[in-house]
Amino acid sequence: MKTLDRYILKSFLIPFLTTFLIILFVLIMQMLWLAFDNFAGKGIGIFIILKFLWYSTLMAAPQALPIGVLLSSIMTLGSLSENYEFAAAKSAGVSLQRMVRPLVFLAVFLSSINFLFLNYVYPYAVLKQLNLKANIKKKQPALALVPGSFNTEIPNYQIKFEEKYGEEKNLLKKVLIYDLSSKRGNNKIITAKRGKITSEQGSRYMTLILNDGYYFEHHRKSGETFEERKKMPASHANFEEYIINIDISSLDNTDLDELKYTKNFNMLSLGQLKDTIPALKKGYDEYIASRAKNLFLTLDVEDLHNYPDSLINKELSPTILNNFELREKTNILNIAISKIDRTLSNNKSYKEPLKNRRKWLNHHDIEYYNRIAFSLSCLLLFFIGAPLGSIIRKGGMGLPMILAISIYVLYFFTNTFGRNMAEESSVTALLGSWLAVVLMLPLALTLTIRAAKDKGLFSISNLFIPITTFFKNIFSKKEKTT
């Protein structure tokens, strides 16, 4: 390796490592802040928190790498231009392309590293972190309770509530509880307007305090006949406060490393996604076919026949209803309206499952294409940052930092926008995943060409050239006519 190449690489690697570690730290702290409520004051050990941070580091590294490449390339090339080192190299006959050649190879290498991280390390980190969160919630049942749906994590109880609020997120609103401890079904139902969860660290019980509610229990005995069951009484009452002590000692043996969720789209490598997507598409097509067949049968289309013209009764009116009496017309219309309402209701009930199936399939397609597109972000952002740095001729953390943040926000916004459109089937998964690359590539080519020709970012005088040329042509024509 030549001395010039070593010098260029050294000038790039020092700010790259610094900016990469800073950005990585910021992203990890953001993840920890979002999950802070799940750890603070819940008796979670430091070892579990460190495991969470380690998985967060592995997840954030592929995102921090492109930002580090972009910022360090602007800083390095800007500093070399600011100190007239590029000018000295050009006077010695060394072109800009020759000077940045080792950085291009390094950017290709970093893109390869990013691809390996996205394909192997990132899915592993997501797998471990998501299951770690789920297992922590098992050990802390209050964390596992989710508003709006029945929660079955707590043994012998099914709990549903509308909202969880308060500083410790232990206050519940509009609570519905099915007590299954008798092992005889939903014989005991409790509703309350408000609820509160309390539990002491190390205690085998979780206390649920309910206020302003209603209690109903249908008493049953084992071995009773159906007739005896109808005669058994039921008890019910309104209450101002009702306390339930729930035994959660069985959750103490929860293994935090247990892998319960393994089929999420972001937990799969490219090879696994490639094997999974065809099966999902086949299931989606079969679901659509079954719904179409069901609609076909509901409308009784097979009962409609085409008769030859010779068999048409000339005395019948072309308007079908005119061939029936008033009562028969009413019956026909009522049956038609009922069948249409039933069909519309069925279609409405199928709409949400169909949308969820399509969205789940889109997630897998987007993840597959985005892994490849995002792995090239290091190379793409380098060809934006390097020429931009040589054009602005400014090093340090001031202007380069502002430009790097602006460019990456633009890249991240277009990437997120494309993925969201693909998720809703507005565009194909391929276009949605590559949208950011398609939109940013012209910028990279333009900046690279202008930097290679030693031109500025833009010239204000060039904006007025067409205007001045237009007026010169007008005045020159006037002079010729006079």
Describe this structure in words.
- The protein is of the alpha+beta class and 482 residues long.
- It has a domain at 142-253.
- Helix content is 62%, strand content 12%.
- It is built from 13 helices and five strands.
- The chain has a five-stranded antiparallel sheet with strand order 1-2-3-4-5, with no helix packed on it.
- A hairpin with a 5-residue loop joins strand 1 (157-165) and strand 2 (171-179).
- The chain starts with a helix and ends with a helix.
- 25% of the residues are buried.
Number of helices: 13
The amount of helix comes to 55-70%
Quick one: biggest sheet?
A: 5 strands, antiparallel
Instruction: Give the CA-based shape.
Output: flat
N- to C-terminal separation? 70 Å
Task: Report strand %.
Answer: 5-15%
**Low-confidence blocks of residues:** 459-464
Task: Give the topology, please.
Layout: H1 3-34, H2 36-39, H3 46-82, H4 85-91, H5 96-139, H6 141-144, E1 157-165, E2 171-179, E3 188-198, E4 205-218, H7 226-231, E5 234-247, H8 270-298, H9 326-375, H10 377-392, H11 399-423, H12 429-452, H13 460-481
Antiparallel strand pairs: 1-2, 2-3, 3-4, 4-5
Keywords:
482 residues; alpha+beta; 5-stranded antiparallel sheet; 12% strand
Offer a concise description of the structure:
This protein is of the alpha+beta class.
